[in-house]
């Protein structure tokens, strides 16, 4: 079972502590690390290999949920912009990374893809530190449905 499938299974069971909320297309979850506060992902449910494996209606729903989640992150964090990345090269199942980008980022990172950050030393998600933001995102998403 891949990491994406595992995370979705945990979300269904109520055992994924990073879940923001259930959305029409899947699960909004906080990222495992928070080197950029508000980093989150949209995991599809059911899990599929790629965006291209969804029918047109499911694609539209997933992409709308992706932008709704991005809007909520922007509102909750005051970030300058959102970066959306659907890669699937390492984990070959659909998932979208949503990265808020900030003016206070170091100059060498601000204009580069987030993959240039040192992920090994990034701040791990912790409910006591990031839980208020997770809850705020859930409230914003419930209000925009």
TrEMBL record:
What name goes with this protein? HIT domain-containing protein
What's the superkingdom here? Bacteria
Which Pfam family would be a valid example here?
HIT
Q: Which GO terms describe its molecular function?
A: catalytic activity
**InterPro entries in UniProt:** HIT-like (IPR011146), HIT-like_sf (IPR036265)
* Limits of the HIT domain: 6-108
């Amino acid at each position: 079972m891949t990491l994406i499938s595992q995370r979705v299974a945990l979300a269904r069971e109520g055992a994924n502590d990073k879940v923001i909320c259930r959305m029409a297309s899947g699960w909004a979850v906080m990222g495992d690390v928070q080197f950029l506060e508000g980093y989150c992902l949209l995991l599809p449910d059911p899990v599929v290999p790629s965006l291209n494996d969804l029918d047109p209606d499911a694609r539209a729903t997933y992409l709308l949920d992706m932008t709704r989640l991005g809007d909520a992150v922007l509102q909750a964090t005051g970030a300058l912009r959102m970066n959306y990345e659907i890669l699937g090269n390492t984990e070959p199942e659909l998932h979208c990374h949503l990265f808020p980008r900030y003016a206070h980022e170091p100059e060498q990172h601000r204009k580069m893809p987030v993959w240039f950050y040192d992920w090994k030393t990034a701040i791990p998600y912790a409910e006591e530190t990031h839980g208020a933001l997770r809850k705020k995102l859930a409230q914003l998403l419930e209000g925009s449905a």
